[in-house]
Amino acid sequence: MSDFSTHTRTQSTGNAAEFETLSHIKAHYTAPAGGTLQSTHSTAPLHLDQQDNAHYPLLFINHSLPYRRIEQTSWLRKNGDISVLFTAPEKFNAHGEVEPGLIPYGRIAREVLMYLVSSAIESGSRTIVISRTWRGFLRDIGIPYSSDNRAMVQMQLRALLDLSLSIYHPGTLSGRNFSTEKFMIGSGEEFTFDQDGLLDDSYRSVVILSQEFYDRITAELSPVEGSVKVLIECWRDVTRKYPHSPMVSDVYLWLACRFPRLHGEGTGLPWPTLHEQFGSAISSERDFRKTFRRALRLAAHEYFAPLGEDFDVHTYIAEFGVGSRTGGGGIRLSPISPAHKKLLSWDKRRKPRAQRPEMALSAPGAPVVDTSAEIVSTSAHGGVDLVALRAELAAKSLPVNSVSDRTLKDAADVVLNRVAYATDPQALVATSIVNNPKLIGIFPARTTGAVPGSSSLPVEICRLHDVEIAGYVCRECAVVLKSVDSEKAEVAECWEAMTARFDALEGTEGAAIAAHRALYAQYARRYGIG
């Protein structure tokens, strides 16, 4: 498996951490042409897929949101000598009930944030008119409509608007002396819901960004101000290929932001700095390095795609300090050559409009009019080719002719949601379904020879996944241990639960406890557990 390490002579990094102080970071950024971003005001909702580019706030590139839901209502991210504290207050839901605050998380939070920032910048106003229906709003963002997606978008939108940010820096920022600044993303919203909690299309709905946040996203670029343009079709390629890996999206935005501004010998970023920026809930730096290398490899492949499949990304991305006994090291980014810059330009990446799917614009006060299907039929889902998946399952003698695409998609979602990141979603989903055909509604007859003694094993509920354990172990825990992409902390929890199950089964007549314990102990040892 490719990584970003190199065992040949590398450039001296010097004091790599110095690149992350405010003065050095600021030197990498240039003001956008014309100063503060301006554009013609528009009152129509923005349809993102009709645009050539979108905007994403640099503050959220340098200080990433969580990748998974967290129980805490505060979230601290550090980048060099700048710290950002995200806090989520209690709020009212659509039914007037008070519920705990939520820190925005995952891919959809990032999609919604990109839409809000792009709408504000393109319209030149912090008051954003959105579609009068959730179906239209999701279409404008670029998210296929479903009841689950609608609920997630609504939850992440409210969480973003309620989010409060505190920025701490010990020196100066943009010429201003300060120790902390505090502001919210939203200052108001006007949503009218019907009795089912859906948007009422009889009323206009608007989102209002706070003046402080609006000023920040439209300012000249600095580590916590300004917004970065990204070609919308490139962003779509990344999010559709890796819908369950928001770190890949974050790293792609980071590369798109950093590479155009590199100069000289480039920059070296120590592992502790990267961990504080992208680490999310991964507490161990060792686990983070493994996860980040994988995300960087995928994001770099997408970023350098115009240079061809055979291009070696190590030309510009390398890992320094490999094998160091002092525990140092990190990632070095080198400036891109002028010849490659031309090939990586937007003109080379952009597809002709004739090749893009035409989608209807939504107008205020008018119902949503579809000129194309809300969800385009495709043989791929979450990085899984459904046609190939059917062939693989049929080759394993599973009767899949009567299984619908919807069932296969649901099964893929169940499998992919069990792991943090999937390097090979196709293989993971196929293997999981073969091992557990119940995922697609196939219930093979139980044979006593397949799992000796399993029919007489006591049934209990897994304390981690709240599912019935009728065999030796919880099927959810088994998937976590067998996967090569699980997080170490999750593996440790599942192995502890399995050990308790094996201990409880000791003495059960006919049960092959020792064999199963040894099998799963082998999986656990791959993660350094047990």
3D structure, described in words:
The protein is α+β, with helices and mostly antiparallel strands and 530 residues long. Helices cover 36% and strands 14% of the residues. It contains 18 helices and 20 strands. Strands 2-3-7-10 form a four-stranded antiparallel sheet.
Mean pLDDT: 76
Q: How helix-rich are the residues, as a percent range?
A: 25-40%
Q: Give the overall shape, derived from the CA principal axes.
A: globular
Alpha-carbon distance between the two ends:
25 Å
List strands and helices in order, with pairings.
Blueprint: H1 22-27, E1 53-57, H2 58-62, E2 74-79, E3 82-87, E4 91-92, E5 98-99, H3 106-123, E6 127-130, H4 134-141, H5 147-162, E7 164-168, E8 172-173, E9 176-177, E10 180-184, E11 186-190, E12 205-209, H6 211-217, E13 227-231, H7 232-241, H8 246-258, E14 267-270, H9 271-278, H10 285-303, E15 317-320, E16 330-333, H11 338-343, H12 346-349, E17 380-381, E18 384-385, H13 386-395, H14 405-416, H15 425-435, E19 460-461, E20 468-469, H16 475-482, H17 488-505, H18 513-525
Helix pairs in contact: 3-5, 8-10, 9-10, 14-15, 16-17, 17-18
Which key terms come to mind for this protein?
three-stranded antiparallel sheet; 18 helices; disordered N terminus
